[in-house]
Amino acid sequence: MKASTPSKKSLTLALALGAGVAAVASTLNPAQAQTGSAKLKACFVYVGPRGDIGWTYAHDQARQAAEKALPWLETKYVESVQEGQALPAIDRLVADKCQVIFTTSFGYMDDTLAAAKKYPNVIFAHAAGYKRAPNMATYMADFYQIYYLNGLVAGALTKSGKVGFVGTFPIPELKRHLSAFALGVKAANPKAVVDVKWLNSWFDPAKTREASEALLSQGDDVLSSAEDSATGVQTAAARKVPTFSHYNSMYKFSPDYVVAGHIAHWDKIYIDFLTKVHSGTYTAKNLANVDYWSLMNTGAVESGADAGVAVNPKWVPQLKAAKMTVAGKTVSVYDRLMALTADMKSPKPTFDPFMGPIKDRNGIVRVPAGKVASVAELNSMGWIAPGVVGAVADEPKK
Amino acid sequence: MNDILDALLRALAFGTPLLLASLGAIVNERAGVVNLGVEGMMALGALAGFAVAYGGGMGGNLWLAVLAAMLVGAVAALLHAFVTITLRANQFVSGLSLTLLGLGLSGLLGKKFEGFPLFNQPPQWPFTVGAIVLAVVLGGVLQFTRVGLTLRSVGENPAAADVLGLNVGLVRYAAVAVGGALAGLAGAYLSLVYRPSWTDGMTAGLGWIAVALVIFVGWSPLRAVFGSVFFGLLYYLQFRLQGQSPVPTEVFSAMPYVLVIVVLGIAGLRGQQGAAPEALGQPYTRGER
């Protein structure tokens, strides 16, 4: 969109002004200037505005939590950096003496790798990608397990047998989440399908509104949105349809219709990573194999409508009444949900949504029986699980 | 049948802010002043509206919120008026700066309002019906009244209007302020009705579609009603038809801009400037031609 560029520029200007004021203030206050000298400076590149309430908001909350927890840490961020334009932002941060740079969107992957080569002494960490270098680690607090759990909930609650999913970009991460969600829906309700609409944008509330409305008018009666604002939740609530928190608690946007969801705690990763950089465990030479693939058992992600609330109490009776078949036995969806949540939070989970045998929606075997999809396979996923209705770009034919 | 009604209702919901903002732009452009700051004024209006309606979480007065949004939009527009009418600066540059300023300032001042839902939201229909009524009234005013004639003559031939004893500067100031107030109102609709919440960058290019719409409808308020519903329909259909139509949905999302280029191209082929006011974009200096 045309508008995001001006927005970014003016924000940068405002931030620059702010930084100038801060610099003046610190020279006026010698005590502050002294403590600042031994600090580790970690900087963040955000894809959306900090206040999007979704992805970027979660990263920024974690940045603040890390700064609070680590007295030797100093942080800085740039927000609303378009994908493909990360390099100029990184150049600026390096010039600003950032020692560790976190780039927080899939689309920054190649720019981050290029920057890692350009600045061999700076430590980089890239979220949601799979390319690494001696001075570039990867990290991801991934939700595919929770998408499966949310799918169970959606399958149990749909009356029309049609569940809506607002997708952002059809990249492996979203395909993984969509497929895990559809597998969950199918497990709880074999006849149900998942309708998908793509935005081709990470943050665009107007698009989310109309994509959600389009799904609802097609007869979908449960809605899940992957866009980085609460608009999906608000649209679902306005039409009295159950929905899910996304990256953060969105419970307060609709205490009646947010049933479950996923919440990220990126600070678990940031604090651990930065502590190891500070102590010298991680250097700009030994990160080629460092990948934080953080699932439910690390505490970096949580399944819930609100922090500490796995399922909205208002919907528990309906989930208890809904039945599903697990290994030939009939159990309530609620019990299954609780059992799987406990398993996934345990140190060695026995259940994985992508446990074979799994065929894609074209009938091709993607995970053979007795196997579990590897992290590498999950990170490059192109195929789509059965039950998903709607076009998905780059879906392999063979 | 139900699908058609659904689509029409969504077109009206999405088209309402486009209509409000473009009506405002029509007023100031008919007086000869282009204001590319619509996006920025919308963002400022959206923030002002949300801040007042939110009222520190206690819930404020909704009509006061709407008024605040219009006032903030008008004040922002007056800045553009001062720079372009009094100082005779380039209207396009000043308008772009206003967009930058509006987006940046609203983002900065809006930080503390991010992440909160609005529970006391106004209904949609007063905005939608009001916008359509306003379009009809504005069409009549421009066509049949002395005020309309004054506005048009200032936009078409300011020198002649000056000779007739009209205060060109004053008329233009007023027209720009009205344009800003309506852009602010469009912003309030977004943050109070359509979302309803505040986030940095939430206008997401809608202001630019409104600017394009003005050209597409040939500066006519009545045609703007159909234009905004049409653009709204295209916007909705890109999602409704996704996966169900052989036409890639990107075609629908690009359509507003494509149509504007087509309309301008046709006007160009006919050897005329379309229906654009003669003096659009030109600062007026007494005694110069």
TrEMBL record, chain A:
UniProt protein name: ABC transporter substrate-binding protein
Keyword Lipoprotein included in the entry's annotation: no
Signal peptide: 1-33
GO CC, one annotated term: plasma membrane
InterPro entries: ABC-Purine-Binding, Peripla_BP_I, PnrA-like
Native source organism of the sequence: Deinococcus aquiradiocola
Annotated ABC transporter substrate-binding protein PnrA-like domain residues: 40-282
UniProt entry keywords in alphabetical sequence: Signal
From TrEMBL, chain B:
The keyword Ion transport is annotated on this UniProt entry: no
Membrane spanning stretches: 7-27, 33-55, 62-83, 89-109, 129-151, 171-194, 206-239, 251-269
CDD domains documented for this protein: TM_PBP1_transp_TpRbsC_like
Keywords attached to this entry: Cell membrane, Membrane, Transmembrane, Transmembrane helix
Single Gene Ontology MF annotation: transmembrane transporter activity
GO cellular component terms attached to this protein's record: plasma membrane
A matching Pfam family: BPD_transp_2
PANTHER family from the UniProt entry: ABC TRANSPORTER PERMEASE PROTEIN, SUGAR ABC TRANSPORTER INTEGRAL MEMBRANE PROTEIN-RELATED
Highest taxon above the source species: Bacteria
Compartments where found: Cell membrane
Bilayer disposition of the protein: Multi-pass membrane protein
Protein name: Sugar ABC transporter permease
